[in-house]
């Protein structure tokens, strides 16, 4: 009998325990700005950990790798920076294929910082291209390339190389590729990055190529390599506005 | 002897019935800190040393503090490009994060590289809907974690975004994505009802923008029934005091803290038990 009572009580206690969960009564959320007023209490161990890494990194980033003739900025319809980037895509893709690639396409949105006049540093190239995107070569019919140019015309310009067109009534007109009028049935090779090759930034025709090669070369590395090689050849980095996209 | 045991039981029983207790937990959270080791140059906001300073001040004042990150702690500054994520991971360890989920940018250098970083630092990485058994991440990723704070049982799990289109295919080859919402429903049910957690927290990198090929935190909250709080990320938005009704009419708190560690999220929770 006594045993039974104890078992009963244990059961009651256990049951009451399972009901003893905490219930959430109230919640309040805020955002604490980590602004300069928090500097005074910044953690000293963390500072000590970061300081030597920062100075090593700064040294690497501040290394001068070439000289540029003038400041290069991006803009529409064409610009020094977008022309230069597209030229480098075209050059490096042609080197990779060991064959002249017909044209190159770069989105203005991927050019994250201008290049300054004078000293060009490793850091400048990182600021220009902080992403890990890679160089891709696509094969597209002339008719698809024309669609792409029409999209660029509607946007008022993009970064291109190896090609030329005029924007007339928001359409691409007088399209030339490697100096010759575009042929709708001809297959053209296009150097671009994997972001655009997925059809991003409204470049839908790039997503359905006849053929595609992923080079595995990072865009940042091909830019860096190009700049260093030009410097070794004693040449300054320069670009020009050559009327590759003209607004009529 | 029997009598004594009898009275102890009665005493315990009466306390459990008549005593009303309250307790407090403070949750601190970040997301999309993107390798921002130093303060952001343009805004002079953020920076690891400042963040840890603020966290430590709160830890001094409050007894029960939890610290979470909702992913994308890597990529965004040359620190990542030069040191492959080791600097960021070591710093997060120094800050004593309780749980961290993976964002898409954690895959930017591939899984071999990420596995090395996680091996070096032993970060508490929690993801429930990435099946990683056949990947190098296997030893370093857990589906959930139970933390006891101030007597409260807190269950934490993580939900990752569909990596397709957000990371190179070769960088997550072999990782199997499980349905985010179904996994979240099952895991939260398991934590709350099987493992008897008082509080269930989902660290999510799904984001709140419907343009991605994954459901949003809002959809996740609405379809769930056992999640109390979603600590979100990916969309770089600041969400404060945002709630969504779940499938049984209870409100789910959704928090997100912008980007680059410019802000630290703080959620003050009060609990009671009768």
In short:
The complex is a heterodimer of chains A (about 250) and B (about 270). Chain A has about 250 residues and is an alpha+beta fold.
Note the quaternary state here: heterodimer
Largest interface: A-B, 51 and 73 residues
The helix fraction of chain B, in percent, is 25-40%
Indicate the mean pLDDT of chain B: 93
Distance between the termini of chain A: 103 Å
- The appropriate CATH architecture of chain B is 4-Layer Sandwich
Looking at CATH, the homologous superfamily of chain B is Metallo-dependent phosphatases
Tell me the major beta sheet of chain B: 6 strands, mixed
CATH topology of chain A: 5'-nucleotidase,  domain 2
Protein structure class of chain B = alpha/beta
Neighbour order of strands in the largest sheet of chain A? 6-3-10-5-11
Can you tell me the CATH class of chain B?
Alpha Beta
- The helix count of chain B comes to 7
Strand content of chain B: 25-35%
Overall, the morphology of chain B is globular
Write the layout of secondary structure elements.
The complex is a heterodimer of chains A (248) and B (274).
Chain A: H1 2-18, E1 23-33, H2 44-61, E2 64-68, H3 80-97, E3 103-106, E4 118-121, H4 122-128, E5 134-141, H5 142-155, E6 159-161, E7 163-168, E8 171-177, E9 180-181, E10 187-193, H6 194-197, E11 211-218, H7 219-232, E12 245-247
Parallel strand pairs in A: 3-10, 7-12
Antiparallel strand pairs in A: 2-4, 3-6, 5-10, 5-11, 7-8, 8-9
Chain B: H1 2-18, E1 21-30, H2 48-61, E2 65-69, H3 78-83, H4 86-94, E3 99-100, H5 111-121, E4 125-126, E5 130-131, E6 141-142, E7 144-149, E8 152-159, E9 176-177, H6 180-194, E10 199-204, H7 217-223, E11 229-231, E12 238-245, E13 251-257, E14 263-273
Parallel strand pairs in B: 1-2, 2-3, 4-6, 8-10, 10-11, 11-13
Antiparallel strand pairs in B: 1-14, 5-9, 7-8, 12-13
Walkthrough of the structure:
Chain A is an alpha+beta fold and 248 residues long. Chain A has helices at residues 2-18, 44-61, 80-97, 122-128, 142-155, 194-197, 219-232; strands at 23-33, 64-68, 103-106, 118-121, 134-141, 159-161, 163-168, 171-177, 180-181, 187-193, 211-218, 245-247. Chain A has a single domain, classed as 5'-Nucleotidase, C-terminal domain (5'-nucleotidase,  domain 2, Alpha-Beta Complex). In chain A, 37% of the residues lie in helices and 27% in strands. A five-stranded mixed sheet of chain A has the order 6-3-10-5-11. Chain A has a four-stranded mixed sheet with strand order 9-8-7-12. The longest helix of chain A is centred in the first third of the chain and has 18 residues, at 44-61. The N and C termini of chain A lie far apart (103 Å). The model of chain A has no long low-confidence stretch (mean pLDDT 93). Chain B has a single domain (20-273), classed as Purple Acid Phosphatase, chain A, domain 2 (4-Layer Sandwich), CATH 3.60.21. In chain B, 29% of the residues lie in helices and 27% in strands. Chain B has seven helices and 14 strands. Chain B has a six-stranded mixed sheet. Chain B has a four-stranded mixed sheet with strand order 3-2-1-14, with helices on one face. Chain B has a two-stranded parallel sheet with strand order 4-6. The chains are: A alpha+beta (248), B alpha/beta (274). Chains A and B meet through helix 1, strand 1 and helix 2 of A and helix 1, helix 2, helix 3, helix 4 and strand 12 of B. Strand 1 of chain A pairs antiparallel with strand 14 (263-273) of chain B, so a sheet runs across the interface.
């Amino acid at each position: 009998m006594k045993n039974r009572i104890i078992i009963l009580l244990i059961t009651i206690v256990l049951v009451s325990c399972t009901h003893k969960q905490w219930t959430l009564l109230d919640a309040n959320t805020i955002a604490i700005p980590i602004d300069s007023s928090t500097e005074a209490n910044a953690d000293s161990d963390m500072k000590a950990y970061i300081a030597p890494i920062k100075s090593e990194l700064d040294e690497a980033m501040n290394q001068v790798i070439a000289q540029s003739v003038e400041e290069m900025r991006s803009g529409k319809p064409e610009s020094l920076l977008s022309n230069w980037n597209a030229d480098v895509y075209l050059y490096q893709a042609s080197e990779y294929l060991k064959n002249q690639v017909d044209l190159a396409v770069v989105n203005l949105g991927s050019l994250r910082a201008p290049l300054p006049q004078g000293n060009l540093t490793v850091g400048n190239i990182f600021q220009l291209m902080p992403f890990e995107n890679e160089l891709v070569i696509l094969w597209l019919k002339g008719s698809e390339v024309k669609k792409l140019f029409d999209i660029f015309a509607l946007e008022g310009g993009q970064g291109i190389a190896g090609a030329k067109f005029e924007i007339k009534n928001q359409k691409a007109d007088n399209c030339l590729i490697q100096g010759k009028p575009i042929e709708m049935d001809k297959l053209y090779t296009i150097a671009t990055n994997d972001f655009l090759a997925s059809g991003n930034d409204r470049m839908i025709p790039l997503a359905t190529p006849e053929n595609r090669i992923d080079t595995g070369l990072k865009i940042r590395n091909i830019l860096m390599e190009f700049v260093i090689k030009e410097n070794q050849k004693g040449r300054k980095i320069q670009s020009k506005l050559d009327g590759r996209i003209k607004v009529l | 002897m029997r009598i004594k045991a009898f009275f102890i039981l009665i005493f315990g029983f009466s306390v459990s019935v008549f005593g009303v207790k309250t307790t407090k937990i403070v949750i601190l959270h970040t997301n999309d800190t993107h390798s921002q080791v130093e303060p952001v140059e343009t805004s002079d906001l953020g920076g690891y040393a400042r963040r840890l300073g603020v966290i430590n001040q709160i830890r001094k004042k409050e007894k029960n503090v939890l610290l979470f990150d909702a992913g994308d702690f890597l990529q965004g500054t040359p620190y990542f490009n030069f040191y492959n994520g080791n600097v960021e991971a070591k710093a997060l360890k120094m800050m004593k994060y309780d749980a961290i989920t993976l964002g898409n940018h954690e895959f930017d250098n591939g899984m071999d590289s990420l596995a090395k970083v996680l091996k070096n630092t032993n970060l508490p990485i929690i993801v429930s809907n990435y099946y990683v058994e056949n990947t190098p991440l296997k030893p370093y990723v857990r589906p959930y974690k139970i933390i006891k704070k101030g007597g409260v049982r807190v269950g934490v799990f993580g939900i990752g975004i569909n990596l397709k289109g957000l990371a190179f295919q070769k960088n997550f080859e072999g990782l199997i994505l499980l349905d985010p919402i179904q996994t979240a429903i099952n895991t939260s049910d398991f934590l709350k009802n099987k493992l008897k957690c008082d509080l269930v927290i989902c660290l999510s990198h799904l984001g709140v923008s419907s343009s991605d090929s994954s459901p949003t935190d809002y959809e996740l909250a609405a379809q769930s029934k056992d999640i109390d709080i979603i600590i979100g990320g990916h969309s770089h938005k600041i969400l404060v005091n945002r709630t969504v009704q779940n499938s049984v009419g209870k409100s789910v708190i959704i928090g997100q803290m912008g980007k680059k560690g410019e802000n630290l999220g703080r959620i003050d929770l009060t609990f009671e038990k009768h």
